[in-house]
Amino acid sequence: MTNTLPQPTAMRVPPLSHDAVGAIDRNIDGAFDFLQAIVANTGLVDEIPDGTNIVLEYEDDPCLTALNRNAAARAQRAGHRVYTHHVRRQK
Prior knowledge:
The protein is an alpha+beta fold.
């Protein structure tokens, strides 16, 4: 008797818009800025409970901040913890 595994089905993912790609890129940049803040202040990590969603807010990008706040609100409604960090661009 031969065991056969079901074949995976291809998942179609719609292409991302130019705006979505820009938001993803900016959040990746912000994540690196956040990591630099942690290196500069290691006590920052102690403020963030395990399993918490980290939401970045940008002083120079209110549109992306609004997008991230909406994601934070959805996470909170789903019962997840959220930690907000204000990103200041490193020069």
